[in-house]
Amino acid sequence: MVVYAAQGDAARSMALLWRGTADEQPKPGPKQGLDLAAVVTAAIEVADAEGMAALSMRAVGQRLGRTAMALYTYVPNKNELIDLMYDRVLTELPVEYDLDEGWRAAITMWAEDTWEFYLRHPWVLQVSQARPVLGPGEFTVLETTLGLLFATGLDTELVRRLVGALSQYVRGAAQPIAEARQALVATGQTDEEWWFGRSAHLGEVAPEFGTRFPLLARLQEGPEEDRGDTPYLEFEARKTFEAGLAVLLDGIEVARQRAGLGLGFSPA
C-alpha cells in the first residue's frame, strides 16, 4: 500500500503544516475539549498500532471518544491528516549530532537513529517520497542530514546527490524488517515457518538447484552466525544494513580523497 502525501487542498494543507490552527477564526459556541495536536497524536497512535490500512477519520475519532464528524472542525479530511501525521512524527528524530569523532561516526549514528525510527513507525515507509509533504518536520530532517554531509567537506553538487542516496538507502534497508513484522500479523506465520516450509519443497522439486545456481549456493557456504532470538529475516536485514552503510561511507571517503581532502576526521 502506497500513500501519496499532499493530496488535499494545497493552501489549506500548507497552512495547517506551518501554522496549525493559528489562522483559524474562533468558532461560536462553547470551547471544544479537543485540538488539532490531539487529533494528529491519535492518528499516529492508530497507524502505529494497526497500520496505515486501518487509518480512517472514524478510527481516530473512536480513539478520542468522538465521532468522525467532530474531527472535521480541526482537519478537512484524511489527506490533510496524513500530511500532518507524517510531518509531526519526523520531529522525533534528533536534530544535532556530535562531530567531534568525525563525519563518519556522526552519519553512522544518524543512520542508526533513522533506521530505528522507521521500525517504530513502519507506516511512514508507505508514504511515497515522490511528492514530499513540504512541512517543517520534513525540512528539519533534511537540514540535519545536510549538515552531516557538508561536514565531509565535499562540494554542494555532490552533497545534493548524497543526501538522497543515503536517505533512500536507510529507508530501503528498513523496509524488509517492517514488512516481515507486518507479514507475521497478516498471515500468522513466522519467517522461519514460511522459509523452512518452502525450502524443504524446493529441495524436492529442484534437486539440481546448487548446480543450476552455483553463485546462490555459494552464499550458503561458511559457518552460520549466532543470531540468538532474533528472527532470521531481521538478523539478515540488519547485517545487510550495516554492510551496505559501511560501503557507502567508504565511497564518501574515496570521494573526499579525490577532492584532495585527505584522510582522517573532517572539521565540523
Describe the structure.
The chain is flat, with a radius of gyration of 23 Å. It is mostly helical and 268 residues long. Helix 2 crosses helix 3 and helix 2 packs across helix 5.
* Beta-strand residue percentage: under 5%
What would the principal axes of the Cα set say about the shape? Answer: flat
The number of distinct helices, counting runs of at least 4 residues, comes to: 12
Query: Which CATH class of the largest domain applies here?
Result: Mainly Alpha
Give the radius of gyration.
Answer: 23 Å
**Overall SS class:** mainly alpha
What is the strand and helix layout of this fold?
Elements: H1 10-19, H2 36-50, H3 57-64, H4 68-71, H5 78-89, H6 103-120, H7 136-150, H8 156-187, H9 191-205, H10 209-212, H11 214-218, H12 232-258
Helix pairs in contact: 1-5, 2-3, 2-5, 6-8, 7-8, 8-12
Keywords summarizing the entry:
268 residues, mainly alpha, Arc Repressor Mutant, subunit A, Tetracycline Repressor, domain 2, 0% strand, flat
Brief description of this entry?
By secondary structure, this protein is mainly alpha-helical.
